[in-house]
Amino acid sequence: MGFTELIRSLPNVHFKENYDIGQHTGLAVGGKAKYFIAPETVNTVQNAVRIAQEHGVEFKAIGNGTNLLVSDFGFDGLLISSKNLTMKLLDKGDVITLGGAQLSSFIRFSVGNGFTGMEGLYGIPATVGGAVCQNAGAFGYTVSDYITEVVAIQNGVLKRFNKSECGFGYRESAFSSGGSFIVSARFKFPKRKTAAKRQEYYAYRLMRNGVQPSGRSCGSVFKNPKGDYAARLIEGAGMKGFRIGGAFVSDMHANFILTDKGASAKDVYSVISEIKKRVYEKYGVTLDEEVEFLGVFK
Ligand SMILES: Cc1cc2nc3c(=O)[nH]c(=O)nc-3n(C[C@H](O)[C@H](O)[C@H](O)COP(=O)(O)OP(=O)(O)OC[C@H]3O[C@@H](n4cnc5c(N)ncnc54)[C@H](O)[C@@H]3O)c2cc1C
After folding, report:
1. What is the pLDDT of residues 38-52, one digit of tens each?
2. Which CATH number, 3.90.78.10, 3.30.70.100, 3.90.1210.10, 3.40.50.720, labels domain 214-294?
3. Among residues 241, 46, 229, which one has the least CA distance to residue 152?
């Protein structure tokens, strides 16, 4: 059997060919994934990774696609979605979640069970797997603060990583260079002394709505350079409102690029390139992308 038949024959795999992945990302631009699956079991993920490796097919995990810019030419490989792996549970005072759980729903679950520690991340439109991979953060909180262990498939092998092996840094981890699928994460949160209140995490979402534009985006496009803010540099370079085709820099937050209906990945990529050029010309600073490119851009 060939690659397609083998993948298609896996149990509960939800296989799609030429899947319009670009439209399912935060920016809603870009092309198709040649192969897409959304397995219901870890065993099926592991078998899919093994088959991809045996057939030399590039594979990549995907959560909600809120940090991805997919090329207009798409992705010539296998995307493995975590969207059917969403369970959350308590175990001996720890909170455990599968990688496909929505981050905000996981925070509600934790607070609802008397734990505290991730409230500031409420409202980031991520899966837990995506947030762990990127070590997402906001308002002084990062997702790795209370992680004790991550279980991931790496090089086809299911492995436990204790926190020190996860390589967490600013918007990066040992899993962000690719080739990994985060199955689950275990958190040891402080137990609260008083009953948790919904308003405590909800307030962060309101704060977020006050400083970030609504619309189609990938959140912050660039990482903050040490000791500075990318948004300050981009605004200082006069780029608020700058537009190419259907992609433009937000007037509200200069580190956000928004897209109109009909925008292309090339439009977004061109705005990114122009921002980098002008910020470098004005400040001598090279901005590093926080958004990740998927597929071919040059
Ligand atoms: C409106 C908006 C606001 C945002 N605000 C913030 C913010 O405040 N702070 C912040 O840090 N980010 C923010 N982001 C960016 C984005 O939500 C985060 O980077 C998030 O962690 C991405 O999660 P995801 O599930 O969408 O991952 P995806 O975009 O699907 O993937 C991102 C990366 O994670 C990898 N990945 C995803 N799932 C897995 C898995 N199970 N196993 C292994 N690797 C995996 C992918 O391969 C890819 O490399 C924002 C985005 C938007 C659109």
Report:
1. 999 999 999 999 999
2. 3.90.78.10
3. 46
